[in-house]
Amino acid sequence: MNHLLSIEELSAEELIGLLDAAAELKAERGSHTRKPLAGQTWAMIFTKSSTRTRVSFEVGIRELGGSPMFLSKNDIQLGRGEPIIDTARVLGRMVHGAVIRTYAQQDIVDFSRYSGIPTINALTDDEHPCQILADLLTIREKLGGWEGKRIAWVGDGFSNMTISWMWAAKKLGFEFAVACPLQYAPTEAFLEKIDAPNISVTAHPAEAVTGAHVINTDVWLSMGQEDQAEKEAAFGPYQVNDELLADAATGHIVLHCLPAYRGKEITEETLEAHADTIFQQAENRLHAQKAVLAALAG
Ligand code: CP
Ligand code: NVA
């Protein structure tokens, strides 16, 4: 593994290897004898807001012995139009790795090629691989694994989160049931490309959630879509609430990558009833990303 650009590019073995390493790093947190990033500086280029990703990477890099360098787009010439391939060639000569949150997936692909240094996708419009690693770790901790489990997604059917989840379903084989307004569903072209019979799409949330062991949601409007009021208006029936969860499997868990908008994709009561899991999921970002950093540190 030279980069983490997507779940699409990971094999099942790599995914499971990262989760095993994350669990080990979590168990040994505090003792930290391994410092695979000793002497390294990692750039963190963010062109979108972040709480969890930024903090977990800064802490994770430090805990593994390295130094993080946070570069928001307005602090560097990228924000004034310097091409990503030039930014990549400069940083590639100075730092040891890069964590990038931005819009176009192609930008991080280009960065990885032109910089020649390990590059991690910290969220693009197409994928959020670090989040999915943390989510899978949480499912393993809470439910013992995903074998034989039904994982439902209620909300935007074709976002960075759903795309990464669908690739995880393809690689790991669990049932993944998406409920979304059909105009925001995975495209036919995508479904044909991924070719995964274990993925289903419905316009009816109750159908996806019935018998589900994991119920997952996210914001209706992803970063960069804040002004799309007509999109938001389509999601009214796609709220995760106690009524919707009535037919979920016994012992089900609710996941939300956060930030959450109460009263929109999830109710206050449902979020607070599942807060233990949801904030464990947020904490697991740190452990999962330390596993990625350690794997890429070389
Ligand atoms: N879930 C997630 O990526 O959170 P942030 O946007 O706060 O980093
Ligand atoms: N789909 C959301 C995820 C936020 C962590 C977004 O892109 O804004």
From TrEMBL:
The Enzyme Commission number assigned here is 2.1.3.3
Aspartate/ornithine carbamoyltransferase Asp/Orn-binding domain sequence ranges: 147-295
Q: What are the residue boundaries of the Aspartate/ornithine carbamoyltransferase carbamoyl-P binding domain, all occurrences included?
A: 3-141
Q: Which domain of life is it from?
A: Bacteria
Top EC class, one word? transferase
Localization, per the record, is: Cytoplasm
The record, for InterPro entries, names:
Asp/Orn_carbamoyltranf_P-bd (IPR006132), Asp/Orn_carbamoylTrfase (IPR006130), Asp/Orn_carbamoylTrfase_sf (IPR036901), Asp_carbamoyltransf_Asp/Orn-bd (IPR006131), Orn/put_carbamltrans (IPR002292), OTCase_ArgI (IPR024904)
Q: Which residues bind L-ornithine?
A: 160, 218, 222-223
The family database entries (Pfam families) matched by this protein are listed as: OTCace (PF00185), OTCace_N (PF02729)
Q: What is this protein called?
A: Ornithine carbamoyltransferase
Recorded source organism is Haloferula helveola
